[in-house]
Structure formats: structure tokens, C-alpha cells
């Protein structure tokens, strides 16, 4: 039993050694993807192009606008002279945000009344729009507070113009600067491993079926389990190496901290790999050609990726989709990998996710071993 | 078509359907120990399907297959210890060397290292493959690939060898090597079932089975099969073979008109009656022709004639 598996392993690694393209595929695309995600995938918002229309032409309005000019969150790209110009700038996507100061702005402020400020935002990208509005609020509140304090100090203006503020002291744990990269880099390790191991495993067996070597293997006394282990153990080893490579790259290049236990990450990765190997095998038993396997990968991996919590929070999804995430090994692994990178929590916190992956992995592997037949149909 | 006494391969009532269409229908034959039994028939006749079912890699719909006393359908894994099967498509790893492929198959069959070297040496020598041990299988010629396949198939000294069109696309020299090995295997008691599309090879078999549309049409020794030839095969020499063909095709009692190198070949149902008619037709059409001679039919002629006869009957 073990000897035959060993001989399969030797064969697989000799083939891998000779396959320059496979070696390239194992190292270069994952690192490139890590670089791209590390730099590009961020929800933070900077330099929102902004158009300004000032109808008040007061010292107050100029002061407010200058606060936007000096903020690195906004970039004033145009001073408009009419509503039409504002509309035009937004339509042409020259600006994503418009600030209109109506005439009488300073007068109202001086009276201690609420002075309206019109803000138009391009809602096409709702996420960016929301975040930009958040920053805009901060700047306007700060301005109002400063203005009120100034009036009080100078003793001018209407009574009660000084506004009481409630200050919020934020203290984000685990990622004090709320650095988006810290969130994404560990996630990339998980999703890369999923895509790589599932597609490699699926195509490995289908390839043998397609080129005819499987038919020759079938007339030997090898047992289905021996063949399957011989085909999957290499990808288990490759998967572990891949996680180590990409995780090291993420910590060394992007400076993402790794505060948890490498052993817990190793355990979680092993359990996750069971699921990915099982999924790849299942696809390979359902596909006759590599093209079919490729299409199946696409259909399975895309929703898994979207529903994993890699980018979109699972808690915000409709309930039926949240149930689906319980069947998604990646959603468990992302919890484990983010927790070991950033939180440093242990088994006491992660055991439900580890058990989830164990169950899914055994189920997928079991089904595909039962489905694999040493026969053609 | 009587089953030989000591049948090594016994097939009865074998049926296989693909998507409802019968690929093999009610097949029955038996192969005796030490035979080289040929399975011939046009493409799509079901030869590969039969081979795969015999090898235990494709379960049949119904029927019985017994190889070396083992029920292949009930216990394919035990049967695989005694038989060897070479698929039509090269089934070895092209990115492994000759040696690595042989070693891999020896490992899968758990052949002890010492025994393995004793076997590999003579096999490599007999197939003239010894100089290519370190070459990648993918870089071998078609003939060498098939010989490598045969070596890997023989590593566990099977008693029954199933070869699916092993010489298709193989050069004549390698084909001769290949058949020499088959004959020496036969002498050492191996039973061989071979399918082939080359009908000149079919003549080298001890017995032949003609498969057509999944059914066994004829099964006998090549010599006796030739006696089934309907009518007489004539060769008409002519400098203008096309004109001869166009003139005689369609005459009553004439069939299977075929251009050959030096003239035309045709089958006539009654030589005494048709020969004068042929000459008259050619003369009146002004087509030049020379000698008209009776020709010994080849297996190819025979099968073409037999299959046409069946089609006309249907």
C-alpha cells in the first residue's frame, strides 16, 4: 500500500521537476497576485476629485473650502461658476464630489443659525461615496466646532453659538491604523491557496484521463485509494509550501504582522488543504476533459471567493447566503488565517472553524474517493 | 467456431450499449491457450470496446468473460494479475524516460528488484530498445513507443496479452520487430488477443474474428476463412485502368471493382459465365486490356467481399 503510494509520489515529482511551466505557475503568479492585491486592493479613499461652487464669497466660505484643499482626502479640481458647470464636472467624471456654498452662508453662521451646505456625490461607486461623505462630515464638523469656539472667544455673535461636542475616542484593536493591507494580505494567502490547489488537483487526474495514461494505470493492481493519494499528496505538500511562500512574502514585503502561533496556522492549513484537495478531486471525477474541469473550477471558485468574506463581510449578506458560507471552507480558513496573523488567538477561539474545515474536508474527500472508479464508462 | 478445449479466454453473451446504441451485441467466442487471436473489423466495429471489457476496465451491460479461469466481471482486480492490456492510445508517461516508465510499472506490480532486472534486460534486447533507456518516452518514434508499451505490459509476465491495434502508425521495421516478439511470446505459452486494422497482419494470426457493427460475423483460421470468398477474384491488366473500372462497374454479377497498380481487380459471382461477358463489354467499349487472371484473395479482399454481401442481404 505505502510502497505504491511512494512510487506514485516519486513519479509525480519527477514529472513536476521536468515541467518548467508548472514550476513557473507555482511561484510567479501567486507572488504577482500578492503584490497586486497588497498594493491595489484597498477600501481607503484618498484624493477624491472635488468641484467647488462658492456663491457666498465670504471669509467663512473661503476658510471652509481651504480645509478641503488642504486635506489629503480631497483634491479640489475645479472652481465652478454656475450649477451647470458643477453638473458638467460630475457627469464627465472630472469630479466625484461637489460642494456648493450658498449665498448667505456666513450671515447665518454669525447669527448662530444652522447654515446649509449642499453636497453632491457621484454614487456610482457607493462604497467610495459613503467613505468620502464620512470624511467630509469630519471636516465640516471640525470647522463648525472651531468656528463656534472662535466666536465664543471673541465674544461676538449670538448667545449659544458655541456648540457642545461629543468626542469619540477610537481604539481599533489588532490593526490600530485600520490598515487595509493587513486585512487583505492574509486573505490573499487563503484565496490563492484555494484557487491553486483546487485547479491543480482537478486538472491532474483529468489530464491523465485525457491523455490516456489513466487507462493504462487501470489495468495494474493499484487500488483507487492508492492512486488518489499518490495524485493528491504532492499537491498537499505544494499547498503547504505555497502558504509558507506567500505568507512569508506578505510579512516580509508588506510588513503585515504575524502575532499568532505558526503551529495553529499549520494545523488550519492542513485542514483547509483537505477540503481543497477533496473539491479538486470531486471536479476531476465529474469532468471528462481538462476544459470541463477548467469551466467547473470557474463556476465553483468564483462564488466561493465572493461568499468567503475575503472582501465583502459575511454578516452583511442576506441570510440564505450566510448559510452557504457555512459550506465554504475558505470562509473558515480566512477566519483562522486572519486570526493567526493579526489577533494571535489560540485553539480556544478557533476550534469551531477548525472543526468546520475537518467536516467539509472529510465529506468532500470521502465523496470523491467513492466516486472514483477504476473503469471507463 | 467451436470453442477449443482449453479456452484461456471465454466470452459469451457480451453486450455493451452507449447511450442506448449497441456497441457490442451478443458477442461470443473463445481463445485457446497459445493462440494469436485476431480481432478485425472496420473502425467503429466495437474492437476497442471488446478489448476494454476483456481487460476489466469497462463493465459490460451483460454477458460473461472468463480469462484464465477468472470471472473478469466479478473480480477484475484478480484477472489483472494474469492479463496485460495495451490500449490503442499510447498510455505511458511521455515526460518520463524509458527506464522510468518501466520501473514505475514494475513498482505498481510489485516486482522484486532482482527479478525485475532479469526480465527487463532480455525485453530491451529483443525489442532493440537498450540504447534508448534514458530517452523520454515522448521523444520516441511511434514504433519505439509501442515496443516500450509492450515491455511495460510484459513486466509482470502475464499469461494473456490483450493488444488494441498495437501497430497502427508503426513503421514496417518496428512492426516486424513487434511481431517477432509476439511469436516468441506465443512459444513461451502466452495467449494473445490482438486487434488490428492491417489485414496483412491478420494473416499472421492463428484465428480471426471479423467484427462488424458490434457483432461477430465470421470466426475461423485465415485459410478456412478464405474459402468463404463469394465468387472469384480476377485481376484485369490494363494501361487504362480507369476506363476498365468505369466499363465493368455495374455489370451484372460483378462487384468490388478496385483499381490496383497494374490494372483492376473485381469479384465475379460465376467465372465461366462472366469472363466472356467482361471481355465483350471491354472490347465493344474499345478499352485496351491485357491478361485476365484469377487471383488468390487476401484477407482484405475477403472481408470487403463478405461485408458487401451482408449489406446487400440486409
Written overview of the protein:
In chain A, 67% of the residues lie in helices and 6% in strands. Chain A is an alpha/beta fold and 377 residues long. In chain A, strand 1 (48-54), helix 3 (59-70) and strand 2 form a beta-alpha-beta unit. In chain A, helix 1 (2-18) crosses helix 9 (224-254) and helix 10 runs antiparallel to helix 13 (329-343). The longest helix of chain A is centred in the middle third of the chain and has 32 residues, at 180-211. Chain A is elongated, with a radius of gyration of 29 Å. The relative contact order of chain A is 0.11. The mean pLDDT of chain A is 87. With 314 residues, chain B is of the alpha/beta class. Chain B folds into two domains: 7-226, P-loop containing nucleotide triphosphate hydrolases (Rossmann fold, 3-Layer(aba) Sandwich); 232-296, Alpha-Beta Plaits, CATH 3.30.70. Chain B has helices spanning 47-55, 76-80, 98-108, 113-126, 142-154, 172-187, 199-202, 222-226, 241-248, 271-285, 299-313, and strands spanning 7-18, 21-32, 36-40, 62-67, 70-71, 83-86, 160-164, 191-196, 207-212, 215-220, 232-237, 254-260, 263-268, 292-294. Chain B has a six-stranded mixed β-sheet with strand order 6-7-8-3-9-10, sandwiched between helices. Chain B has a four-stranded antiparallel β-sheet with strand order 2-1-4-5. A four-stranded antiparallel β-sheet of chain B has the order 12-13-11-14, sandwiched between helices. In chain B, strand 9 and strand 10 form a beta hairpin. The chains are: A alpha/beta (377), B alpha/beta (314).
Provide a quick synopsis of the model.
The complex is a heterodimer of chains A (377) and B (314). Chain A has 377 residues and is an alpha/beta fold.
Amino acid at each position: 500500500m505505502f510502497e505504491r503510494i511512494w512510487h506514485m509520489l516519486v513519479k509525480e515529482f519527477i514529472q513536476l521537476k521536468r515541467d518548467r511551466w508548472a514550476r513557473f505557475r507555482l511561484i510567479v503568479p501567486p507572488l504577482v497576485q500578492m503584490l497586486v492585491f497588497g498594493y491595489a486592493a484597498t477600501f481607503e479613499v484618498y484624493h477624491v476629485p472635488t468641484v467647488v461652487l462658492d456663491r457666498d464669497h465670504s471669509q467663512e466660505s473661503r476658510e471652509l473650502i481651504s480645509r478641503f484643499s488642504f486635506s489629503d482626502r480631497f483634491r479640489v479640481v475645479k472652481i465652478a461658476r454656475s450649477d451647470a458647470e458643477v453638473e458638467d464636472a460630475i457627469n464627465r467624471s472630472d469630479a466625484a464630489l461637489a460642494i456648493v456654498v450658498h449665498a448667505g452662508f456666513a450671515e447665518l453662521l454669525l447669527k448662530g443659525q444652522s447654515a446649509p451646505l449642499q453636497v453632491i456625490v457621484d454614487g456610482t461607486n457607493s462604497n467610495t461615496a459613503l467613505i468620502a461623505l464620512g470624511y467630509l462630515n469630519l471636516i465640516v464638523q471640525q470647522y463648525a466646532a472651531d468656528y463656534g469656539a472662535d466666536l465664543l472667544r471673541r465674544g461676538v455673535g449670538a448667545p449659544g453659538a458655541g456648540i457642545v461636542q461629543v468626542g469619540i475616542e477610537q481604539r481599533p484593536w489588532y490593526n490600530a491604523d485600520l490598515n487595509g493591507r493587513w486585512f487583505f494580505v492574509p486573505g490573499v494567502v487563503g484565496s490563492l491557496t484555494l484557487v491553486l490547489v483546487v485547479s491543480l488537483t482537478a486538472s491532474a487526474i483529468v489530464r491523465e484521463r485525457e491523455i490516456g495514461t489513466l487507462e493504462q494505470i487501470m489495468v495494474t493492481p493499484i487500488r483507487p485509494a492508492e492512486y488518489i493519494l499518490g495524485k493528491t499528496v504532492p499537491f498537499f505538500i505544494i499547498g503547504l509550501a505555497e502558504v509558507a511562500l506567500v505568507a512569508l512574502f506578505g510579512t516580509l514585503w508588506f510588513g503585515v504582522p504575524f502575532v499568532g502561533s505558526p503551529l495553529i496556522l499549520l494545523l488550519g492549513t492542513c485542514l483547509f488543504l483537505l477540503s481543497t484537495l477533496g473539491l479538486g478531486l470531486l471536479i476531476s471525477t465529474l469532468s471528462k476533459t481538462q476544459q470541463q474541469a477548467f469551466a467547473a473550477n470557474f463556476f465553483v471558485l468564483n462564488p466561493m471567493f465572493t461568499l468567503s468574506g475575503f472582501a465583502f463581510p459575511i454578516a452583511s449578506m442576506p441570510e440564505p447566503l450566510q448559510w452557504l458560507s457555512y459550506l465554504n471552507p475558505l470562509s473558515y480558513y480566512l477566519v483562522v488565517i486572519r486570526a493567526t496573523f493579526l489577533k494571535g488567538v489560540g485553539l480556544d477561539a478557533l476550534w469551531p472553524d477548525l472543526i468546520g474545515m475537518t467536516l467539509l474536508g472529510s465529506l468532500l474527500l470521502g465523496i470523491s474517493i467513492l466516486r472514483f472508479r477504476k473503469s471507463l464508462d | 467456431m467451436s470453442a477449443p478445449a482449453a479456452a484461456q479466454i471465454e466470452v459469451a453473451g457480451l453486450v455493451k450499449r452507449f447511450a442506448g446504441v449497441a456497441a457490442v451485441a451478443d458477442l461470443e467466442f473463445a481463445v485457446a491457450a497459445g493462440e494469436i487471436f485476431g480481432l478485425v473489423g472496420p473502425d467503429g466495429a466495437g474492437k476497442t470496446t471488446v478489448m476494454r471489457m476483456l481487460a476489466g476496465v469497462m463493465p459490460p451491460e451483460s454477458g460473461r468473460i472468463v480469462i484464465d479461469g477468472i470471472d473478469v466481471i466479478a473480480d477484475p482486480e484478480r484477472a489483472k494479475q494474469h492479463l496485460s492490456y495495451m490500449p490503442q492510445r499510447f498510455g505511458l508517461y511521455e515526460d518520463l524516460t524509458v527506464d522510468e516508465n518501466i520501473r514505475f510499472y514494475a513498482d505498481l506490480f510489485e516486482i522484486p528488484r532482482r527479478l525485475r532486472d532479469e526480465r527487463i534486460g532480455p525485453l530491451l534486447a529483443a525489442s532493440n530498445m537498450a540504447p534508448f533507456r534514458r530517452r523520454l518516452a515522448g521523444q520516441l518514434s511511434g514504433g519505439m513507443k509501442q515496443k516500450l508499451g509492450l515491455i511495460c505490459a510484459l513486466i509482470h509476465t502475464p499469461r494473456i496479452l490483450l493488444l488494441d491495434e498495437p501497430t497502427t502508425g508503426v513503421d514496417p521495421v518496428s512492426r516486424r520487430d513487434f511481431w517477432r516478439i509476439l511469436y516468441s511470446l506465443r512459444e513461451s505459452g502466452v495467449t494473445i488477443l490482438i486487434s488490428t486494422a492491417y489485414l496483412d497482419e491478420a494473416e499472421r494470426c492463428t484465428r480471426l474474428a471479423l467484427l462488424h457493427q458490434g457483432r461477430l460475423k465470421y470466426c475461423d483460421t485465415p485459410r478456412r476463412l478464405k474459402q468463404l470468398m463469394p465468387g472469384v477474384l480476377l485481376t484485369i491488366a490494363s494501361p487504362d485502368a480507369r476506363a476498365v473500372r468505369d466499363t465493368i462497374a455495374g455489370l451484372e454479377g460483378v462487384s468490388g471493382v478496385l483499381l490496383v497498380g497494374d490494372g483492376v481487380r473485381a469479384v465475379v459471382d460465376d467465372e465461366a459465365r462472366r469472363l466472356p461477358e467482361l471481355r465483350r463489354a471491354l472490347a465493344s467499349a474499345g478499352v485496351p486490356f491485357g491478361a485476365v487472371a484469377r487471383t488468390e484473395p487476401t484477407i482484405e479482399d475477403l472481408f470487403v467481399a463478405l461485408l458487401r454481401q451482408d449489406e446487400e442481404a440486409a
